[in-house]
Every structure is written in structure tokens, then in C-alpha cells.
Amino acid sequence: SPDIPDSDYDPDIFEVNAGVLRQKDTRPANFQNYFAWNSQLDGNYGEGTLTVTPANSAAIAGGFLDLTGTTNKYVTMAGNVAPGQIGTIAFVYKPNYSGTPGTIQTMIMYGNQLNNTLGTFFIQHSSVDGFLYLLQTNSAGGATFYVTLGSAWSPTAGTSYTFTIQLDLTNGATKLFINGVQYGITLTQTGTKGVTNYVRVGADNNG
């Protein structure tokens, strides 16, 4: 690429083509969807659906998806927006509580159809013992795993935490990372999750 006089740029991020400087596409080759939720509910880009359906006045506030309040706020994305047998789910979680929540908190889930348990996944913060629970059912609705990881998780209100779930139901190597550090054990269970038709943030499949 030709140099631009009196300029400095990172060639890993930008490229120059025919005298035009543009940002490279640095998204993973197998990415599915990306939802920034800093100014709009609908997704920013992806191969699945980008339309988000809010419930009970879920909205963007302060650069985050705001699900706080006395009503059960959540959002749903219908369509193929979840990983396959092997894939990654990453999100930033900013709780409005410290320690153990007053009610169970479903961070994110996906499944085959609403109101059934086929191919269902979720991660929840328990209001009983403060543990993080992961569930994955197979395509017939049987539990591949329903486990708690590590010890009780005690977040601080208003602090942002980056969750990364590395899902591997083929080889049995599912892991959870919080702020880049593995939390708890590696799950070695295997199974076939089947087709995913929706993702929900902030509630389980029953709302």
C-alpha cells in the first residue's frame, strides 16, 4: 500500500487502497452477530437476525442495555443468532447489585423454541447461593449439563464484567471466563444441541 504523506497509521487496523484509507474488517471469520447496545437496540452487524424485540420497556440508557426496574425487562432476537456445537458467546455485564442478587438473574439464554427445553442454554446468577449456573440441554430436551462453576460470584454494583463462554459440545471443553480469567472448571460433557431459533437477554425461555 502507498504511504500517505505526514501520516501515521496502524497497518493491522487500516489499509490504503487507491489513495483511500479505510479500516480493515477485523471481525472473526466465523462471527455470527454483534450487538453494541450503546445507542440502538437492533444489532450492528451479523449473519443472523439483527432485529431486537424488547419487553416491558427494555431500552438503551447510558450506553448500555438497561434491564433494571421492578418489571421483568428483557430482549429477544428470533432467528439463528447463537453459536453451533462449538462457538463463543461474549458480553459485558454491569449489575446494579453487589454480592448475591435479590432475585435470580438470567444473563443470556438461547433455545430451539420459546416455552420448551429443546437445545436450551442459559447462564444465571443464583439468588439462593450466589453461584453462577450453566445449563445446556440437547436437541431432545435432556440435560447435557446443569452445573455451578467455582465458588459464589460476588460482583460490585456498577462495575462492568466481560463474560466469555467458550462452548464446545463436540469435544467436551466448555469454559467460562470473567475478565479473561477462567472461572471454575472446564465442562467435559458432550451432546447435540440442535437448531437454535432465538436468543434472549435478561430472562429465561418463559420470560
What does this molecule look like?
By secondary structure, the chain is mostly beta strands. It is 0% helix and 37% strand. It contains no helices and 17 strands. The strands form five sheets. It has a seven-stranded antiparallel beta sheet, with no helix packed on it. The chain has a four-stranded antiparallel beta sheet with strand order 9-14-15-16, with no helix packed on it. Strand 1 and strand 2 form a beta hairpin. The model has no long low-confidence stretch (mean pLDDT 87).
Strands, count: 17
Provide a count of the helices: 0
Strand order of the largest sheet: 5-8-17-10-11-12-13
Beta-strand content bin:
35-45%
How widely separated are the two ends?
Answer: 52 Å
What order do the helices and strands come in, and which of them pair?
Elements: E1 14-17, E2 20-23, E3 33-34, E4 45-46, E5 53-55, E6 59-61, E7 64-66, E8 74-78, E9 86-93, E10 105-111, E11 121-125, E12 132-137, E13 143-149, E14 161-168, E15 175-178, E16 181-182, E17 198-201
